[in-house]
Design a protein that fits this description.
five-stranded antiparallel sheet, Polyamine Oxidase, Chain A, domain 2, protoporphyrinogen ix oxidase, domain 3, FAD/NAD(P)-binding domain, 17 helices, five-stranded parallel sheet, alpha+beta
């Protein structure tokens, strides 16, 4: 294998290009004007902020290790320590420490928090007394956890966390794909609470809510650093329109640029694209892969970033932010108090308080159809209800992520297995991205590097 075309310049594609450095001549095609995908920085009130993902999960090593390898090791930083907080029933209520994706290892610690009713707490505590046969088939998160802990626990503890990660709904998301650690315990049979405590005692990774790291100057620096370190030829503003098999098991890519059509050939191709975009390119070559890729739904979201003057704000919140249960009916699904959470941001803008609010879950297209100014006003109003009357921001901006988060529905792992089996029948082709084994940055890095290794192994 002498040449590879990577279609998609998000962190997955760039990780693939980095893995191929020195082993092949690599060209990355990116349709936008900059690489990075959902990792990018912007400015508000003259301050650099992340518009997409603001942190890297440290539970998995792939992202932080790659960041260090491309020269960002000294820029990696921990967030301020703060509990996971849920805005519900008119107050900000901390979730007791020791939870796994919202499921506490000691439900009795919920008593008095107001997160659940007394009946809800008792229902959770009773889980240890319920028999449980080993889970042999995939099911929804709600389908399994509501039977174990009660619907109230799912609605008010698990759903807010899932909404923050997947913008999904507990009744639709796959237990195996969205909560793999809990699914693994369920497959063993028996009550979950004792198993969760044993896992914790054995030194299992901490909750994702605290096991993250940021990048000083913004996580959006990460893809640019990878792009510079990988040595690939990177063509931005270049959209792949079609794939063609040519003699010798090579690939031809037809693309469109600002200057007109572009045709390239290579020994191999990596599709580092959203599922629906990969499906379009694969339709002539693998109808089976195309059908399963097209069947993966996606949620659209928006991030509303606001900057407040510290001297003029009536009130500034404490903590790192909060999550919001969908059952409460609010517009917001989460808020992150960036100036509290990241020391580098507070140091860069000591006179300004920056936060961002997130909106949009699967099925909320009507909400996201509202104009930017309406989303900003809704966010300000709800923030005032949640944390206090902060006053008006100096500046606000809305970043929209159309179809930005793939949804891991029941049977997702089986669907991905079928996609990969079908793609394996096309020599010199590999797939990577958020649609397969995880939506987080670390998971995307892992799929990119794995796709590159797959091609190298087959060359």
């Amino acid at each position: 294998m002498r040449s590879v075309i990577v279609i998609g310049g998000g962190i997955s594609g760039l990780a693939a290009a980095w893995q191929l450095r020195g082993r092949a001549d690599v060209t990355v095609l990116e349709s936008h004007t900059k690489v990075g995908g959902k990792l990018r920085t912007g400015t508000i009130a003259g301050i650099t902020v992340d518009e997409g993902a603001e942190s890297l999960m440290a539970l998995r090593p792939e992202a932080v290790e790659l960041a260090a390898a491309v020269g960002l090791g000294d820029a990696l930083c921990d967030p301020a320590q703060a509990p996971t907080t849920i805005w519900t029933k008119g107050a900000l209520r901390p979730l007791p420490a020791g939870h796994v994706m919202g499921v506490p290892t000691d439900p009795s610690a919920l008593a008095g928090t107001g997160l659940l009713s007394a009946e809800g707490v008792a229902r959770m505590c009773a889980e240890e007394t319920l028999a449980a046969a080993p889970l042999t088939e995939d099911c929804s998160v709600a389908g399994y956890l509501a039977a174990r802990f009660g619907q109230e626990a799912v609605d008010r503890l698990v759903e807010p966390v899932l909404g923050g990660v997947y913008a999904g709904r507990a009744e639709r998301l796959s237990l195996r794909a969205a909560m793999p650690r809990i699914a693994a315990l369920a497959a063993q049979g028996g009550p979950l609470l004792p198993a969760l405590r044993r896992m914790k005692a054995a030194g299992a990774p901490r909750s994702a809510a605290v096991a993250v790291q940021g990048v000083a100057g913004g996580t959006g620096r990460f893809p640019q650093a990878v792009a510079e370190a990988c040595g690939a030829r990177i063509l931005t503003g270049t959209t792949a329109r079609s794939l063609h098999r040519i003699a010798g098991d090579r690939w031809r890519v037809q693309a469109m640029t600002g200057d007109g059509p572009l045709t390239m050939e290579a020994d191999a191709v990596i599709l580092a694209l959203p599922a629906f975009a990969a499906a379009e390119l694969l339709r002539p070559h693998s109808p089976l892969a195309e059908a399963d890729l097209s069947a993966i739904p996606h949620a659209s979201t928006a991030v509303i970033t606001m900057a407040f003057s510290r001297s003029q704000a009536h009130f500034l919140p404490e903590g790192n932010g909060f999550l919001v249960p969908a059952v409460d009916g609010h517009t917001l699904k989460a808020a992150s108090f960036l100036s509290n959470k990241w020391a580098w941001l507070a140091e860069a803008a000591p006179d300004t308080f920056v936060l961002r609010a997130s909106v949009g879950r699967i099925g909320e297209d009507q909400l996201l159809a509202r104009p930017d100014r309406h989303l900003v006003r809704s966010a300000i109003t709800e923030l005032h209800h949640a944390v206090g009357a902060m006053g008006e921001p100096l500046a606000a901006r809305v970043t929209r992520w159309d179809r930005g988060l793939p949804q891991y529905g029941v049977g997702h792992r089986e669907r991905v297995a079928r996609i990969r089996e079908a793609a394996a029948k096309l020599p010199g082709l590999a797939l990577c991205g958020a649609a397969y084994e995880g939506v987080g940055v670390a998971a995307c890095v892992a799929t990119g590097r794995s796709a590159a290794r797959q091609l190298l192994a087959g060359s």
